[in-house]
């Protein structure tokens, strides 16, 4: 299955931030890095793909459907955008109750999902936090909680916005570990926007480079730390 983004543009009021985006996203269980400078349009693109924002022009289609409305319906159930910062889950619910709530939203059987939820909680060292309310967690715990929820739901595509921000060293290792586990489990495609070269090169199987709202390059293979930094400098060389 493949998501086809065709000639997509997005404006905030009069200000255009995505320009004529064309991108195919194969829903295999790989991790793709979305890389670009601050303000390039990464979060906006991920929000549009998840259906949280609608494009102003252009389309997103599934390969087996040719209507935008089919994609929008599919995206509501099968994609999850995990925002940067401390948002993402419901404040006054525990992590496990958040999972139950999101199971309802995404039409996932809660009881069937519990074993996988617990195994992901173990992998992220979050098992002792699953009964804690989201608003009583630290910044890093909230990030890990939102990630755990997204993985446990097994939505076909998860869009992670700067997932390593605020994580301590152990939690960063946990993040890399679960993203690599996810590939082996084969349930989910992950699109990850990050400025963390260490995270990107540890988990990504390919990259999309975005500058000023334009996709400027793609790489269909993993990259070493040095190669990614070289590519970044080549792609985003400052003028003048
Ligand atoms: N709600 C909004 N209203 C108006 N402009 C916005 C809004 N959200 C983002 N923008 C603008 O759109 C552009 C793209 O922002 P976006 O958050 O998508 O970039 P980004 O690549 O994710 O950046 P960063 O790496 O800094 O998180 C920026 O110029 C930003 O100021």
UniProtKB/TrEMBL annotation:
GO molecular function: ATP binding; ATP hydrolysis activity
PROSITE patterns: ABC_TRANSPORTER_2
Alphabetical list of Pfam families matching this protein: ABC_tran
Residue intervals of the ABC transporter domain: 3-237
Keywords: ATP-binding, Nucleotide-binding, Transport
Record-stated family: Belongs to the ABC transporter superfamily.
Entries under PANTHER family matching the protein: ABC TRANSPORTER ATP-BINDING PROTEIN, ABC TRANSPORTER ATP-BINDING PROTEIN NATA
Name listed for the protein in its UniProt record: ABC transporter ATP-binding protein
Species for this entry: Bombilactobacillus apium
